[in-house]
From TrEMBL:
Localization: Cell membrane; Cytoplasm
A single GO molecular function term of this UniProt record: kinase activity
Entry GO terms, CC: cytoplasm; plasma membrane
Gene Ontology biological-process annotations: phosphoenolpyruvate-dependent sugar phosphotransferase system
Sequence ranges assigned to domain PTS EIIA type-1 in this UniProt record: 28-132
InterPro entries membership: Dup_hybrid_motif (IPR011055), PTS_EIIA_1_perm (IPR001127), PTS_EIIA_component (IPR050890)
Protein name: PTS Glc IIA
Superkingdom in the source lineage: Bacteria
Entry-linked Pfam families: PTS_EIIA_1
Organism of this sequence: Lactobacillus kimbladii
PROSITE patterns reported for this sequence: PTS_EIIA_TYPE_1
């Protein structure tokens, strides 16, 4: 169409407040080795989760530990709340969106009880993964450190 995103890049926001880190630092090989795709992770300082992009909610897992969003340019993003938290069967999560909802970047998605997650010996790291890497030409590096939800943390370039 107008190729707006191809020149400047497509920005992805922080999904929560906390310590931003490269996805390669996640303590789970599926994520750290980018088996599901590239992205970033945040060790949260609170349990409020926001949309890293504008798009349509395509999946809310029954266990509430993950939310899928597809952007208007067909980028598929998975917002994964914690590591192995599927085992908690939804207990620490409250999801505010449902499949089919339209969200804007930085809209509130969910909350997670980080104290319960860590008390049960699970990792509460929030991971954002771009699951259809075939549409992406490049992903910028993340600058590790403190971040606030809504901050731009990565820029993507799409294939022509």
């Amino acid at each position: 169409m107008f190729n707006i995103f191809k020149k400047r890049g497509f920005t992805v926001a922080a999904a929560c407040d906390g310590k931003l880190m490269p996805i390669t630092d996640v303590k789970d090989e599926v994520f750290s080795q980018k088996m599901l795709g590239d992205g970033y992770a945040i060790k949260p300082t609170d349990g409020k989760i926001y949309s890293p992009v504008a798009g349509t909610v395509t999946t809310v897992f029954p266990t509430k530990h993950a939310i899928g969003i597809t952007t208007d340019n067909n980028l598929e993003i998975l917002v994964h709340l914690g590591i192995d938290t599927v085992e908690l069967k939804g207990e620490p999560f409250e999801v505010a969106v449902k499949q089919g909802d339209t969200v804007k970047q930085d809209d509130y998605l969910a909350s997670m009880n980080t104290e319960l997650i860590t008390a049960e010996n699970y990792d509460d790291t929030v991971i954002v993964v771009y699951t259809n890497m075939d549409v992406i030409k490049s992903v910028s590096d993340v600058s590790a450190g403190d971040t606030t939800h809504g901050d731009t943390v990565q820029t993507l370039q799409f294939n022509a």
